[in-house]
Amino acid sequence: MWTEKDNKLSKTFKFGDFQEAFAFMTRVAFLAEAHQHHPNWSNVYNTVEIELTTHDQGNTVTEKDRKLAEAIDELNA
Question: CB of 9 within 8 A of CB of 3?
Fold first, then answer.
């Protein structure tokens, strides 16, 4: 579940290992390009943390963030 706090949508994804986490990040990267909207994220071993905010709208959560979050969830379903 995505959490909205401090003008960001955030979610943590856990995988079996680093390779699975990195593969997920690669899929998200292509998805983000298609949406022309790019996440702030980090990866430590099997954990990927993603934050979404719309920088050109004053760093607030917009429909653009919600649509990308939904698309990311579909990748991970």
Answer: yes
